Amino acid sequence: MRASYLEIYNEEIRDLLSKNGSSKLELKEKDNTVYVKDLSTFVVKKPDDMMDVFNEGSVNRHVGATDMNDQSSRSHSLFTITIESSEIGPDGKSHIKVGKLNIVDLAGSERQSKTKAEGERMKEGIKINLSLSTLCHVISSLTDPKCTFVPYRDSKLTRLLQDSLGGNTKTVMIANIGPADYNMDETLSTLRYASRAKNI
Predict the structure, then answer these.
(1) What's residue 78's pLDDT?
(2) Distance between CA atoms of 170 and 157, rounded to whole angstroms?
(3) Tens of pLDDT along 118-173?
(4) Residue 77 and residue 102: Cα distance in Å, rounded?
(5) Mean pLDDT, to the nearest integer, of 168-189?
(6) What three-state secondary structure class fits 107?
(7) What is the CA radius of gyration of the chain?
(8) Model-level pTM?
């Protein structure tokens, strides 16, 4: 069992478990599988090991204050647990099975007029909204029976989540919404987003 932890910050991939966390990593593809070159992975043998890896990576995430949230996520994060098992098949040979669990924390969609973001914060917000918009297009494409093309490649987020959204997978989305009437537009937008995702 192995664990890795990355974030997508301003459309760049960063390893949250690396000593050199500021370096940007590249997406690669081999045998129709997308992976991140040079991403750290740690072998974990018990739940405490996994929590140690998760907590270490969480400390390194990009967060910042906006007018709506004093600890706002400024990136999307992807914590991946990979499990490999080997068993002897009827042919007497060893066969390896691989399972993967992606736990994704999406940064919240933002309106600049409410966050009052400027400079670097505004740039972060634009990148967050662009990748969320691409994810929305991917979800819409997957739910449209007439669609012949799914734009996975338009964002690093959707590229990394390609095998979690289509194919032999189970996906659960938890949508966080606020009770304040001040946030009604954002709440409705989030619920529409989740409703579309349910139709995949």
Answers:
(1) 95
(2) 18
(3) 556 567 777 878 888 888 889 888 888 898 899 999 999 999 998 888 777 888 88
(4) 10
(5) 85
(6) coil
(7) 18
(8) 0.80
Amino acid identity of residue 156, one-letter, is: K
Q: How far is CA 173 from CA 11, 38, 90, 97, 198, in A?
A: 22, 28, 38, 25, 8
Instruction: Round to whole Å and give the CA distance between 6 and 126.
Output: 20
Q: How many helices (H) and strands (E) does the chain have?
A: 6, 10
Residue ranges of alpha helices (H) inside 12-166 are 47-59, 112-115, 119-143, 156-160, 162-165
188 φ/ψ angles, rounded to the nearest 5 degrees: -65, -40
Euclidean distance between CA atoms 147 and 166, whole angstroms = 14
Nearest-angstrom CA–CA distance, 171 and 142: 13
Is residue 91 classed as helix, strand or coil in its secondary structure? coil
Tokens coding 82: 């990979």
Question: What is the average pLDDT score of the chain?
Answer: 84
Question: Which SS3 state, helix, strand or coil, does residue 89 take?
Answer: coil
- Name the residue among 16, 7, 5, 35 with its Cα closest to residue 124: 7
Output the CA–CA distances (angstroms, integers) from residue 135 to 85, 95, 129, 140, in the order listed.
32, 35, 10, 9
